[in-house]
Write a structure and sequence with these properties.
Nucleotidyltransferase, domain 5; 6-stranded mixed β-sheet; globular; 2 domains; 10 helices; 297 residues
């Protein structure tokens, strides 16, 4: 087994993802767990060590690359993606860790929007697609973000809280139905088209879904399919300037990635679908390499 060299940490809205990478670039361990109790440097160190209990050899101190944390600060658009030269570094005060480099997010003042970890996934995507010019649709449990990319720069972007709206409005479903995702593409795609055609009626259409569940025994999985179709449909209508006539890369994990890709395909696009976790890890691995090169120059 490769000797652990670096820890990559992605701070999401409700949990942490963590990868331990070996000296030869292989994945040594992978963990997920609760977010730190607070957003300070000490709390993150404690959360990392709690997740890696027993993984770090005695006397070994690993460097940490972290994205999605507020201590990284943020650059303002337009800005280069993967420009980490000035990323804040704080030494660790816990055994097992040498220090944490906090990768900056990206902000936009008008309309107000923020990327907090998504920019690192985009950086990972651009490593493999250097000439990509178009839009990255980044999906997290909290939001979707449409990011216009040109010449490896973030030009502008918008955030949508569609996943949160779905969670708040969706009918209860059992575990199997949740894992299976959308049961019927026709329900979902029909609702996407309906919302894009008549976005002003979205609240009434959601009300009709709830009434049908009570009056006509509409199954929960079909109700969820229609609800998500309506929500994604109004998002596509609002984000049309971003995706119309553009290359689109959908960067995400889980069922939302397939839903957005399916909705975009129905509009005549050919979206590229890639794993958010894989791209985020690739971005942080590149940041670690850049940091190590900086030590020798």
């Amino acid at each position: 087994m490769s000797k652990p060299e670096m820890i990559a940490v992605h701070c999401l809205s409700d949990h942490l993802k963590l990868w331990v990478m070996g000296s030869d670039g292989t994945l040594v361990a992978q963990r997920a767990g609760d977010s730190p109790a607070s957003s300070d440097h000490a709390a993150l160190q404690q959360a990392i060590l709690r997740l890696l209990d027993g993984e770090i050899a005695h006397g070994q101190n690993l460097s940490v690359i972290c994205c999605g944390h507020e201590l990284g600060g943020a650059a303002s658009v337009p800005c280069g993606i993967g420009a980490w030269e000035d990323a804040p570094y704080l030494p660790a005060d816990q055994p097992g860790l040498s220090g944490i480099t906090y990768l900056p997010g990206i902000v936009q003042q008008r309309p107000a929007a923020r990327l907090s970890g998504e920019e690192t996934a985009i950086a990972g995507f651009l490593i493999q697609n250097e000439k990509f010019d178009g839009v990255a649709l980044c999906l997290t449990p909290a939001q979707s973000s449409w990011v216009h990319i040109s010449a490896s720069e973030a030009v502008s972007f918008r955030n949508f809280v569609t996943p949160q709206l779905s969670a708040a409005l969706s009918p209860p479903m059992n575990a199997k139905a949740e894992a299976d995702g959308i049961a019927d593409d026709s329900d979902f795609l029909g609702a996407v088209e309906q919302a894009m055609t008549r976005p002003a009626a979205i609240a009434a259409e959601i009300g009709s879904i709830r009434a049908e569940m009570q009056l006509s025994a509409l199954p929960a999985d079909r109700a969820r399919a229609r609800l998500n179709g309506l929500l994604i449909g109004i998002e596509l209508a609002a984000a049309r300037p971003y995706w119309l006539g553009q290359q689109v890369a959908v960067i995400g994990d889980g069922p939302w990635t397939g839903l957005y890709s399916g909705a975009l395909s129905a509009q005549g696009l050919q979206p590229r679908q890639v794993s958010s976790s894989a791209m985020t890890l690739a971005g942080m691995a590149r940041a670690h390499m850049a940091k190590e090169r900086g030590k020798t120059t």
